[in-house]
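Before relying on records like the one below, remember that each one covers exactly one chain. Contacts with other chains, cofactors or solvent are not represented anywhere in the record.
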Amino acid sequence: MKTGIFLALVLALGLSGTAFGASAGVQLSGFLSTYISNSTISGINFTNVTVGNSLYSIGHVTANNYFIVNATSGKFSFVTSNATAFSVLSPYLYGIYYPSNATLASLSTTMSAYIKKANSTGLAECLLETGYTSGFTCTLANTCYSCSTAPICKKALNDFGGPTSTFGYGIMNLYQNYSILNRSYNQYFAALNGINRSNIISRASVLYNSIKSITATTTNFSRITVFPPPSNVTPTTIATCSNYAVTNLPWYCAMTGFCSTPTFNSTATNSITATVTGILDSPISNATVRAWAGNATSLAFSYYLPVLREQNGALFNRSIATLYPEYNSSVANATALLKNLQSASLSASLANLEKGFASFVSAGASQNVTVVTTQMKGLLSNLTAQYRVLAANFTPTYNLAVNNTQKLIIGQLNYQSVPSGIAQLASEQQALDLKLKGNLNTSELSSIRAQLQSISSQLNFYVPTSLPLMVKSFDSGFVNAMLSGQQINPASKIAAAPGYAAMLSFIIGIVILALIYFATYHRFNRRGKLRHTPGAHKAWRLLFIVLFIIVLAYAYETYALSSQANAFLPISSFVQQAGSQASLVIGVNGSANSSVSQCIAALNHTASTMSKAVQVISISANYSCSVSVHGLTYGGQSCYDYILSSGTPMVFIDSVPHTTSLIYKGLYGTVLYASGQAANGASCLANAALNTLR
């Protein structure tokens, strides 16, 4: 915040706002002169605001440094309640700093123009020429099929050496960066279209992260090999490319110039970044306004506490120091409880305490400190006693609701098709959770508690019988051993896991078949106990053919169940595994926004309270990451591969999902996949599942 701009706005509002009048202004100066020197008062700008039926004067000392005086009915007192200061500052600051409709519209039109210019300067044409608009993709697995749909691209791809050439990788790189760019555009406009006063800061954070992603991604375009070298790579530099071996060419020597270089307007992104940064720096979030309110009351205290100390000596100082911590704690506790539970008596006690304490502080030397201190202690004691009674009623009910909800989450996620009984209990619990967020009376709370206890008595869920889980438990060691040493990417290993499980079953079947053979036919034949007739030989052959078919069926069924394990497993199995391990990995695919960060923090806290070592790592779209274990660091795809093969529990969070999901799956590895709302907020479902271990 620029100091000059802030003071100019304050002065303008101060001159145009409600005026006290000459005599009231003199009275305010007289009141303040007891606490502040006249030379300081003369340099303070005052803005007068009305909140409800009360009149306040905001004294601006310097930028972001002010105090508030209650001037209702010509009786002056410093505002020392943070809640009151918040109620005065909140509408006032919104009036100054909330972005105008023109500003928000400019953020939209500037980005639209930015996108239009980028497309019109070669990007859209390049996507067409490389086959992207055909709806297909370019990967090594499909031999860059999209390029083959555009004749000019197909010819160039063949000329340059196919999908594994620098040209082929350039097309893949183009598609990857364009997908990131397009996703960032969508996030940007989705956040912008939903901005309002209640979410301005969180949405502005999304805008900021989106524009940073756009800027970073467009920077990558300069090195994509389908484009010409950037302007700062001169012909002289290009001429040196002949000095290098083909396998060791600098990046700019691989630029093909197949497409025209798109132009990205950095002026537009810089303008958007500056605007969004200004919004984020503005004091319009509740947290910032509360902080400013706290600063205002602190400044007020700094003015009059020295005077009170002089007038009433050490007695008043000790009284304030003794009462203030308990006062703040009691007021905060009572205020929080009253948001959920109605109590006329607690509300009245809270109002009496706040009013009495404000009067006590502002009166200073004009009161009997000993008598009023005793009165304040009485008010505090009364409020605390009422709060404890109500909290003893509400807190166990709330905790019971939390426990029920967490158990029901596990109960539902143990099934692909949730049993009707669990679904019904979950529906009932959800309705009760919503009621608990309202303003209840004690009768309603008692009714809710009885219903919660009824649900709790029905929550004796067990891990359902799961054949895929049995296959994982039996075969995972063999599968891990077979896959760990292979140099293929983790996605391919996950896909290959059912095949190795089937292989193990086939081997076991063949061993059993061999044992049956040696224990029966071979043994009897050696001892001369077999009848060597065509019918007998035919019967034995038929027997072993049937047994071999059974072995094949066993291997096939193992493959089918293993494939199911790759799609879904009961979440209780993951929770049990996570509970038995000393460490937990939290993997994040993409940039974590503020809501996802809350979920990560909640998971980290929950795991830490269970004395688990927690690592939070970033995982790219191709399963590349970095993790440290026992002093060793695993990087790239070997990082994710290590996590899978070691059985280390991991919560994999997709921060840019298209759907909401929380699912445990995988024959190879112990990974809980979370996306959408299941991975957002401080009470994310992934954390709720882990919380059942506490």
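The chain has 23 helices and eleven strands.
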